């Protein structure tokens, strides 16, 4: 029956691909696709049905054993690192080859080679932001400065390529067959590029938006509505931390003149909404068994195949388990026999834009320090399926690449700005994870992090010896207060970064008195930290909920930590809704609409949880969206991108200053106050929910939110999961929104016998025809986990199959 369902789904997908083939380039050869011996029929399998007991892998020094558990998680047992990572490359490619290549093709700006001209604009943007340029620098740095890491990268690539060489047409991943192309050789460069891709995914800036808003409302009002340290600040590094170092001097220039802001009308790239993460560690003094517990759940886009691939990597000197990134070496978030670690995004502003004045149309020289200096030309050749290559000319200044110019989105008025970004620097993030995989103690953890540049991350740590720690890690520019918030003048050297914060002075803490460390993308520090720290995206709610629960809890168990990761309490609603209801009652004592009364009663009796069967979260979300828009939409202008005050500051304004002129709508003759906006937005909510009920029926939260987990090719709907029945949402610890959420949850107790559990929304297999493609999904949606304990070779229980790799 499973095969029949798969074949039906596959036929639908093939028909879709053919129907929209003009978007993908040439139609796939249907005879080849339908060939019973080589076509899609051969993908109707699960891995346990085609497993090999023995595989020959050249260049091995000794035999390697791979044991698969009942969830298709491979446990690799090798005698040395090169054999370990060569086998990791082979095994990962067995299950995720298409995903590995597709993601690195996207990172390289090469999707046009697969899907044709429809991807040209995206490929040009990727190249112009400098992802390949940054990867080139990283590759050169590793080859010249760290031959040991390069050797392991080459071993991994060799393993991938040996799998590709042995792969038959019948076993080729389905996506290659539908999109009609073949895999190319893997390289060490692609592994470096993959980590740059993650940097791009996790960073953004609002320089343009702040610049526009300053022109509209002035800097004083910006400072009032966008405080750099809000009064709710509960930072990653605990309050009143004593900084035991002498900071570097940062010279603050006077009388700064910013570029003419009247020209900035369009939008620059922004990070995906909903990307976040939680992690924490509690010390043994707060746990039931007296040993630390660590938890991590990165929030990213929800895709199939999953971003993560679970794996254990073991040699005689290390045994590491957790989540890997297909294409990168080692475990990214996990634990070994001595330590555990996890990551969340630190949301630091490490991307700035500089206005460039070129001497003439040739752009071979630009103005810096009032002198003309030479620019650099980088030619990007973008191959296009079925067409001649596109040659793109990208100008580089000493600040960085000029993203927009007369040849790319020339209709924009903000052309000729250079992007300065830490991604464009020499770095070796791969070494950080290689060292973490075999770290023994806190000192090893610190050494590993010293190699890490970008993206900025909060690295949580716990050890079997009892330590817990947190460090905000990355290469952070030295900036004067306010630098980088607005677009800057590329000619004026006073706008330059003044160096970088020394690694040892990055915010960190070890064994704090409160007995836990945690991060959820909030402010890294309090104002006592001696360096300027800024980002527009600091989180205001998840962090306070987590810290509140960790403070309250004692005798903490793994079950407590699982429950906290899946916590559906809506702190924002608990703070905002009472204010909104009070404003509504002041304005309008009697609500005559029966539906309105029903909705109002539901909201008044809500417990502020967002379980999938509840209706109140939908009511609140719609009301809040209309309320927020009703207050701030007056600043929006056609074609002008701005940043708007966040939910926390908006709630505070509603509560503390309900008569403020900020609530007035200048388009009406009356002077509106908070009660007017609350009433109008409530009426809009009633109308919207009534319409929803007529069209869709029940407005329970799961249906209304509509969480979906899409295939990496969005058009392949049949290989996606729609309307996943789960709770949570943006700003909630269980941050499962429409398209984002906990891409990986894991908890580990560092006792005498380490105990661990993990889960992610998908499955180990990249093959839609496999029962292991999405077998984790229901468990993930329900807040359940699978066993993630370290396995030893002699443990024979719950084995799916075993493969021995011989030289």
TrEMBL record:
Identification of the protein by name: Penicillin amidase
Family affiliation: Belongs to the peptidase S45 family.
Active-site residues annotated for this sequence: 277
Binding, Ca(2+): 349, 352
A biological process term (GO) from this entry: antibiotic biosynthetic process
Cofactor binding note of this UniProt entry: Binds 1 Ca(2+) ion per dimer.
Keyword Coiled coil: no
Originating species: Rhodonellum psychrophilum GCM71 = DSM 17998
Cofactors that this protein relies on: Ca(2+)
Superkingdom of source: Bacteria
GO molecular function: hydrolase activity, acting on carbon-nitrogen (but not peptide) bonds, in linear amides; metal ion binding
Iron is among the record's keywords: no
Keyword annotations of the record: Calcium, Hydrolase, Metal-binding, Zymogen
Lineage: Bacteria, Pseudomonadati, Bacteroidota, Cytophagia, Cytophagales
């Amino acid at each position: 029956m499973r095969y029949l369902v798969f074949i039906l789904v596959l036929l639908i997908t093939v028909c879709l691909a053919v129907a929209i083939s003009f978007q993908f380039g040439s139609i796939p050869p249907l005879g080849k696709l339908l060939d019973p011996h080589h076509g899609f029929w051969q993908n109707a399998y699960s891995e346990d049905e085609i497993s090999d007991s023995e595989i020959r892998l050249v260049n091995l020094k000794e035999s390697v054993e791979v044991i698969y558990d009942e969830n298709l998680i491979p446990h690799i047992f090798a005698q040395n690192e090169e054999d370990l990572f060569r086998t990791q490359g082979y095994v990962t490619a067995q299950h995720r080859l298409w995903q590995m290549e597709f993601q690195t093709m996207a990172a390289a700006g090469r999707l046009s080679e697969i899907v044709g001209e429809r991807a040209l604009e995206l490929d040009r943007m990727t190249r112009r932001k400098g992802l390949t340029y940054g990867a080139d620098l990283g590759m050169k740095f590793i080859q010249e400065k760290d031959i040991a890491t390069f050797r392991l990268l080459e071993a991994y690539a060799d393993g991938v390529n040996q799998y590709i060489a042995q792969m038959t047409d019948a076993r080729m991943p389905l996506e290659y067959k539908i999109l009609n192309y073949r895999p190319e050789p893997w390289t060490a460069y692609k592994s470096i590029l993959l980590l740059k891709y993650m940097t791009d995914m996790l960073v953004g800036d609002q320089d343009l938006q702040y610049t526009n808003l300053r022109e509209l409302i002035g800097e004083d009002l910006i400072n009032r509505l966008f405080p750099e340290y809000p009064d709710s600040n509960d930072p990653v590094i605990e309050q009143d931390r004593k900084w035991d170092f002498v900071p570097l001097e940062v010279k603050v220039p006077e009388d700064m003149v910013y570029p003419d802001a009247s020209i900035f009308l369009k939008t620059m790239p922004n990070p995906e909404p909903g990307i976040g993460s939680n992690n924490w560690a509690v010390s043994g003094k707060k746990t039931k068994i007296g040993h630390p517990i660590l938890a991590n759940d990165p929030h990213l886009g929800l895709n199939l195949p999953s971003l993560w691939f679970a794996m254990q990597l073991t040699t005689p000197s290390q045994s590491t388990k957790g989540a890997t990134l297909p294409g990168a070496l080692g475990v990214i978030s996990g634990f070994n026999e001595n330590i555990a670690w996890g990551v969340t995004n630190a949301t630091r502003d490490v991307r700035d834009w500089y206005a460039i004045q070129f001497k003439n149309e040739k752009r071979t020289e630009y103005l810096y320090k009032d002198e003309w200096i030479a620019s650099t030309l980088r030619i990007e050749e973008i191959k296009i399926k079925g067409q001649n290559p596109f040659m793109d000319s990208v100008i580089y200044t000493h600040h960085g690449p000029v993203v927009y110019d007369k040849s790319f989105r020339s209709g924009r008025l903000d052309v000729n700005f250079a992007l300065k970004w830490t991604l464009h620097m020499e770095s070796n993030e791969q070494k950080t994870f290689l060292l973490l995989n075999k770290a023994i103690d806190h000192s090893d953890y610190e050494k590993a992090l010293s190699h890490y540049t970008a993206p900025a991350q909060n690295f949580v740590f716990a050890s079997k010896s009892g330590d817990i720690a947190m460090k905000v890690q990355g290469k952070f520019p030295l900036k004067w207060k306010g630098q980088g918030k607005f677009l800057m003048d590329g000619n004026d050297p006073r706008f330059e970064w003044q160096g970088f914060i020394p690694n040892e002075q990055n915010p960190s803490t070890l064994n704090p008195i409160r007995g836990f460390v945690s991060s959820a993308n909030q402010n890294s520090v309090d104002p006592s930290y001696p360096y300027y720290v800024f980002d527009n995206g600091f989180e205001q709610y998840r962090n306070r909920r987590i810290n509140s629960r960790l403070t309250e809890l004692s005798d903490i168990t793994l079950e407590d930590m699982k429950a906290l990761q899946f916590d559906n309490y809506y702190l924002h609603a608990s703070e905002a809704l009472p204010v909104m209801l009070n404003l509504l009652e002041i304005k309008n004592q009697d609500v005559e609409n029966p539906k309105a009364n029903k909705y109002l009663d539901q909201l008044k009796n809500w417990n502020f949880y967002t379980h999938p069967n509840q209706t109140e979260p939908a009511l609140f979300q719609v009301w809040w969206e209309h309320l927020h828009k009703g207050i701030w939409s007056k600043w929006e202008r056609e074609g002008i991108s701005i940043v708007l005050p966040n939910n926390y500051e908006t709630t505070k304004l509603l509560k503390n200053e309900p008569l403020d002129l900020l609530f007035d709508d200048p388009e009406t003759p009356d002077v509106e106050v908070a009660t007017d906006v609350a009433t109008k937005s409530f009426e809009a909510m009633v109308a919207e929910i009534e319409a929803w009920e007529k069209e869709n029926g029940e407005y329970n939260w799961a249906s209304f939110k509509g969480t979906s987990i899409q295939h990496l090719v969005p058009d392949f709907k049949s290989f996606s999961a729609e309307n996943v029945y789960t709770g949570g949402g943006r700003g909630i610890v269980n941050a499962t929104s429409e398209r984002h959420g906990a891409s990986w949850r894991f908890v580990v107790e560092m006792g005498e016998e380490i105990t661990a559990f993990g889960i992610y929304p998908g499955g180990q297999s990249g093959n839609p025809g496999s029962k292991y493609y999405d077998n984790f999904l229901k468990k993930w949606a329900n807040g359940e986990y699978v066993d993630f304990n370290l396995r030893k070779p002699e443990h024979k229980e719950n084995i799916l199959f075993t493969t021995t790799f011989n030289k």
